[in-house]
């Protein structure tokens, strides 16, 4: 049997209307954990991509705008000096 996607799993959980309040709390916690794992995987993939792009002289003019948009969507923090977003911390080493 094929593995369920996170969305399929959540829809099945929602369809089960016999859950107690505490059971629903656990479902919500599991859904949040799935979302965080998804974000971590996407952050890592983008970090690897950005790391491979090269120096600032080789990037496109709108690279910083795109990086900011991605960073905000995926909760990537700014560098302490505000010079950009710290994708580097998520890359595969």
> What is the share of helical residues?
55-70%
Instruction: Give a short account of the largest sheet.
Output: none
Total count of strands: 0
Rg estimate, integer Å:
18 Å
* Helical segment count: 3
Which percent range describes the beta-strand content?
under 5%
- The helix-and-strand class reads mainly alpha
**Could you name the ranges where pLDDT drops below 50 across 5 or more consecutive residues?**
none
Task: Report the mean per-residue pLDDT as an integer.
Answer: 83
Taking the alpha carbons of the first and last residues, their distance comes to 34 Å
Indicate the overall shape: elongated
Any idea how many domains?
Answer: 1
Strand and helix order: HHH
Question: Which features would summarize this protein structure in a list?
Answer:
0% strand; 3 helices; 93 residues; mainly alpha; single chain
Structure description:
This protein has 93 residues and is mainly alpha-helical. The chain has one domain (6-90). The protein contains three helices and no strands. It is elongated. The relative contact order is 0.12. The mean pLDDT is 83.
Concise summary:
Helices cover about 55% and strands about 0% of the residues.
Q: What's the arrangement of secondary structure elements?
A:
Elements: H1 6-15, H2 21-51, H3 63-73
């Amino acid at each position: 049997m094929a593995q369920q996607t996170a969305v399929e799993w959540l829809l099945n959980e929602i369809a089960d209307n016999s859950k107690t309040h505490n059971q629903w709390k656990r479902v919500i916690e599991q859904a949040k954990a799935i979302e965080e794992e998804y974000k971590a995987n996407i952050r890592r993939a983008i970090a690897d991509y950005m790391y491979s792009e090269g120096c600032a002289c080789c990037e496109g003019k709108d690279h910083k705008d795109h990086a900011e948009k991605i960073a905000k969507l995926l909760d990537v923090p700014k560098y302490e000096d505000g010079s950009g977003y710290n994708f580097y911390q998520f890359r595969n080493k």
